[in-house]
Specification:
- By secondary structure, the protein is of the alpha+beta class.
- The protein folds into three domains: 72 residues, Integrase, N-terminal zinc-binding domain (Arc Repressor Mutant, subunit A, Orthogonal Bundle); 93 residues, YebC, transcriptional regulation domain (Alpha-Beta Plaits, 2-Layer Sandwich); 70 residues, Alpha-Beta Plaits, CATH 3.30.70.980.
- It has nine helices and ten strands.
- A four-stranded antiparallel beta sheet has the order 3-1-2-9. It has a four-stranded antiparallel beta sheet with strand order 5-6-4-7, sandwiched between helices. A two-stranded parallel ribbon has the order 8-10.
- A hairpin with a 3-residue loop joins strand 5 and strand 6.
- Helix 1 packs parallel to helix 9, helix 2 packs antiparallel against helix 3 and helix 6 packs across helix 7.
- 41% of the residues are buried.
């Protein structure tokens, strides 16, 4: 399994914990605001906003909170203007990392992300240095309680490309443009996903066999993920399931 899929399910478990919920809410609301600013508040004409609205509801963000975020993004309410920024770098063992941020201060965020890489045994890289090792995909996490054959049948008919066994969940991947169609098909078949989002999936992976090195990689990624301005972290590690399971507890 790729680093993306393992980290996606680890984040899914962590995000369900009460202690993580407030931070998750804040990050998702920021994404909703930016989607509304970039494409307008009409969800029927703004695919990005539809995706972020669904992600917010998956995370149990209250509807009125989402609606206020949309109004701030579209200019109906006053709000902070955020800028989308991506950083690239390497974790220990040469693992490629992409960090997507929304910030109101590019210089501050850049310095802080660089500091996290440095303190965690990684390093920043020039734009384009690692992004060629990833491709944009739609990703849906579906509860394992649903039968694999049924999930696979419905998802594939709607345009999905793959279904992977992630232990407690099925991980469905598709092209970015098919994400909402696949989600809708699963919901119509009463196979509602626990989450759905656009993601960067690695095309190649780096095996990290040493357990101590694996934990260093995961600590770096989690530290980046916990930064207030960071929305998503993608990495191409391949770490043993036992280490990932223990880290996600």
């Amino acid at each position: 399994m790729s680093g993306h899929s393992k980290w996606a399910t680890t984040k899914y478990r962590k995000g369900a914990q009460d202690s993580a919920r407030a931070k998750v809410f804040a990050k998702i609301i920021r994404q909703v605001e930016v989607a509304a600013r970039e494409g307008g508040s009409d969800m029927s004409a703004n695919a990005g906003l539809r995706t972020m609205y669904a992600k917010a509801r998956d995370s149990s963000v209250p509807i009125d909170t989402i609606e206020r975020a949309i109004k701030r993004g579209s200019g109906e309410l006053e709000g902070v203007r955020y800028e989308s920024i991506s950083y690239e770098g390497y974790a220990p063992d040469g693992v490629a990392v992409i960090v997507e941020c929304l910030s109101d201060n590019r210089n501050r965020t850049g310095a802080e992300i660089r500091n996290i890489f440095s303190k965690s045994g990684g390093s920043m890289a020039e734009p384009g240095a690692v992004s060629w090792q990833f491709e944009r995909k739609g990703v849906l996490v579906v509860p394992r309680t649903f039968e694999e054959d049924r999930v696979l049948e419905v998802a594939m008919e709607a345009g999905a490309e793959d279904l992977a066994d992630e232990g407690e969940h099925w991980l469905v991947t598709c092209s970015p443009t098919d994400l909402m169609a696949v989600r809708s098909a699963l919901e119509d078949a009463e196979l509602s996903p626990g989450s759905s989002e656009l993601s960067m999936v690695p095309t190649t992976t780096v095996e990290v066999s040493d357990e101590s090195e694996a934990k260093r990689v995961l600590r770096l990624i989690e530290t980046l993920d916990d930064h207030d301005d960071v929305q998503n972290v993608y990495a191409n590690f391949d770490i043993a399931d036992s280490v990932m399971a223990a880290y996600g507890e």
